[in-house]
Amino acid sequence: MEPKHEGAIEIESPDEFEARVGLNFSKTSLLRKALTHRSYINENPDVLEDNERLEFLGDAVLDFLVGAWLYNRFPEMREGELTRLRSALVRTEELAAFGRQIDLGRAIRLGRGELQAGGRERKAMLCATFEALIGALYLDADLEGVEAFLKPMLEIAAEQILALRQHEDPKSLLQEIVQAHGYGPPQYRTVSATGPEHKKTFEVEAIIGDTVYGKGSGHSKRSAAKMAAQDALKNLDLE
User: Which of 17, 45, 62, 166 sits in a 20 to 30 Å window from 86, CA-based?
Assistant: First the structure.
């Protein structure tokens, strides 16, 4: 079967996606549903259900399965670090990265507006669809099927997160690094606050000595400072 096209965008059918990724659904309707965004429903009245309920289920399955996998994979790791590592593995950015690994965007069924807006590449879209895929796989093949699919991704991702200390609080990690090099604690300066009162966006700079090393934005000063610390860690060169 040839893939369909929307303008210049190649759309992979659920059957093609299943074959390419190496999945084997006994209930193909579950996979089709997992790949269907609500915007597709609006333009295709014959399609009755989107993937939001499967996304809800997949989110819960991932929390449990990743926690169980970490418990067995790292028997000496303490509870606090296990919690932080699980959070890093199931955050939006990481699940979106898992989605990119299997080129999930090609198979997401979207409405024309979402397609034209670049919905296939958005982190939130890839994350939500990956969660829906996990929910569908759980219903079709139980936890064993999900684990077999997910375990190779978790092994690589966990190794990278631990090596780069990405599961640690970025502000604490930044302070530890700069003080080890003889600097005082990083300072965080709010440089702007824009938008309506109920939904302001704050811009914060992370300053080491007299130099701005990182910038971040968020809907609270705390989240913006965290992003600034993450940016500073990328830019840091204290050797």
Answer: 17
